[in-house]
Specification:
Elements (H helix, E strand, L loop, with lengths): L9 H10 L9 E4 L4 E3 L13 E4 L2 H6 L3 E2 L19 H14 L62 H8 L3 H12 L3 H19 L4 H7 L5 H12 L18 E6 L6 H10 L6 E6 L2 E12 L2 E12 L4 E6 L7 H11 L6 H8 L17 H10 L5 H15 L17 H5 L3 H5 L5 H15 L11 H10 L5 H10 L12 H7 L7 H9 L6 H10 L1 H4 L5 H13 L7
Parallel strand pairs: 2-4
Antiparallel strand pairs: 1-2, 1-3, 5-9, 6-7, 7-8, 8-9
Length: about 575
């Protein structure tokens, strides 16, 4: 059983709290009965007495118990708890349900821009809309009124594209009642309370880190009106939204800045180095000098039929385990979505403890490595096709030519950022001659146009909320897309932690199976011991982490694992 599926060990949590251990940030929260406040394990305030502490696995549990978030450590900055298990079916279903609720894009590509929040859903108006329990903070229904049974509804209008419990159950293949039961069993709160907490904490972060007007924050965070926004804050926290404003919080001359937390260890140099090696000029830049780990890029996203384009800039503060994210004003309407995409791109929600418990023996030098993601899954897919069977440098050259020819010019305060990656609609109409002049062979031309057409027609979604198996099947059905490309896209764009491009030549070399009769099969067999974290194993193998650590027996361990897999066992490593 995964330890996070069982009740928290209070004594262990208290020890982590006393040590202010950042490895447990987001893994639990501490409610202090003497103050009525809940904190992260890394909070800098004086450690409370043991008898005054209550421990919760999720912020929603702490708020449901009557605690309000600490204004100093700010629970909204904690990395999310994204845990995968291969043992407990109810645990898997509950966390997959939460993941779907955290990803509005998983439900419809046209959800309303001003309410697009990766981590909460809007309170729709009308019959069947999301409502809180009668009399609960933020509820439009007075005490005694029958609560709505759904989280939303399905249909064609903007509000009709919101998730419902029935829709969530259908996606998971279980009943409505079972969704509610497993969700409350695993999280200790209802789906409605979970969403409400996500929404409130998002609003709290924007109030603290930005100078945006309260009205805009209310809509961006997913509230249907400022009245409901104010009512939810007063009812939940006993404070008006303006009282959550941090003293002296101001915006820079251009853009909006927010902070994002992560759990150590995190190999920042490896992450920035990965992106720098693949950098395409004009749409992105990476500065990875000592003491100056920062990245910038242009970004485009379509939400609710409206295209939002702008720039983002991220810089690492390793001493505080934070990333400072600066976003152009043109992206403010989709700010929560941008935050979620950046968290995925930098893999800020990974749980190193869970991952390393499986992979450390085979890859002792890779404990801080993360899986690099993508801000735009469509862009990543095109770049993956360009990289088929050629070197990274050669693929980068082709991508640069494509951006120079088809990329849309844009103005930014960053001299290195002058273009957007070619839009899907543009590449969908690109002729073979135009692509051929860039040095792209015919097979890859067909694959690129096929991906662009599928994305432009909204037949293909490439983001963390997409159905992994269905998306991989849809990708492989396109011309020129094989298993390697589909698995690579799943690993980086779909954020699937168990993707494994078994046919990768560099992977074969790293694992020492390139000289065998069927290296792809041998690599696949060896990888069974690394489930459900095979994406992380791939990154570690590519980085050479297998040879960097103190275990000279790692290659032999992999060979033993392959033999165990053939015999039906997968616990050899």
């Amino acid at each position: 059983m995964n330890p996070q599926a069982t009740p928290l060990a209070d004594d262990a949590c208290y020890l982590a709290l006393k040590a202010r251990d950042a490895r447990f940030d987001g893994r639990f929260f501490t409610g202090v009965t003497s103050t009525g406040i809940y904190c992260r394990p890394v909070c800098s305030v004086k450690t409370p007495k043991r008898e005054n502490c209550r421990f919760f696995g999720h912020a929603a549990q702490a708020e449901n118990a009557g605690f309000r978030p600490c204004l100093r450590c700010r629970p909204e900055l904690a990395p999310h708890s994204v845990v995968w298990s291969i043992q407990d079916a109810s645990y898997i279903l509950a966390h997959q349900a939460a993941r779907l609720l955290d990803e509005p894009e998983a439900w419809a590509p046209t959800f309303v821009a001003s309410r697009a929040y990766g981590g909460a859903l809007p309170l729709a108006r009308g019959k069947g809309a999301l409502r809180l329990r009668p009399g609960e903070a933020g509820s439009a229904a007075p005490a005694g009124e029958e609560a709505a049974s759904t989280l939303g509804r399905g249909g064609t209008s903007p509000h009709d594209t919101e998730p419902t419990v029935a829709g969530l159950a259908a996606k998971l293949g279980i009943s409505d009642r079972h969704v509610r039961r497993i969700f409350e069993m695993q999280f200790g709160v209802s789906p409605m309370q979970y969403l409400q907490t996500r929404r409130l904490l998002t609003a709290k972060q924007l109030l603290a880190d930005t100078a945006l007007p309260v009205t805009q924050i209310a809509l961006i965070s997913g509230f249907a009106s400022v009245r409901r926004f104010n009512a939810a804050f007063v009812g939940h926290y006993g404070l008006n939204p303006t009282q959550m404003r941090r003293q002296g919080a101001t915006s820079p001359d251009t853009g909006i800045t927010v902070r994002l937390g992560y759990r150590p260890p995190y190999d920042v140099a490896a992450m920035t180095g990965f992106f720098k090696k693949r950098q395409i000029n004009a749409i992105e830049f990476v500065a990875d000098s000592v003491g100056n780990m920062e990245m910038g890029r242009t970004f485009r996203v379509e939400v609710g039929g409206k295209v939002h384009a702008g720039w983002i800039h991220a810089s690492f503060d390793e001493s505080r385990c934070h990333v400072a994210l600066r976003i152009s004003d043109s992206l403010r309407e989709v700010l929560p979505l941008v935050i979620r995409r950046l968290r995925a791109m930098l893999d800020l929600d990974a749980d190193p403890q869970a991952i390393n418990s499986v992979l450390h023996a085979s890859f002792p030098g890779g404990d801080g490595l993360r899986v690099p993601g993508a801000m735009d899954g469509y862009e990543l897919a095109v770049r993956a096709v360009l990289g088929q069977q050629i070197t990274v440098a050669a693929a980068r050259t082709l991508a640069q030519r494509m951006v120079d020819k088809f990329g849309e010019p844009m103005e930014t305060p960053w001299p290195a950022l002058t273009r957007l990656f070619p839009a899907a609609a543009v590449l969908a109409r690109a002729s073979g001659d135009a692509l051929g002049q860039l040095g792209i062979v015919k097979q890859r031309q067909t694959a690129i146009v096929g991906i662009a057409q599928a994305v432009a027609d909204k037949r293909l979604q490439l983001h963390g909320g997409a159905d992994v198996n269905a998306t991989i099947a849809a990708l492989k059905a396109l011309p020129g897309i094989g298993d390697w490309t589909a698995q690579y896209i799943a690993m980086r764009a779909l954020r699937w932690p168990d993707a494994f491009p078994a046919g990768d030549v560099a992977l074969h070399k790293a694992l020492g199976v390139q000289g065998l009769k069927n290296p792809a099969k041998e690599a696949e067999l060896a990888s069974m011991a690394w489930k459900p974290w095979r994406s992380y194993a791939v990154i570690r193998a590519w980085s050479g982490a297998m040879q960097a650590g103190p275990s000279p027996d790692a290659p032999q361990l992999i060979a033993d694992g392959a033999r165990a897999a053939r015999a039906g066992g997968t616990k050899g490593i």
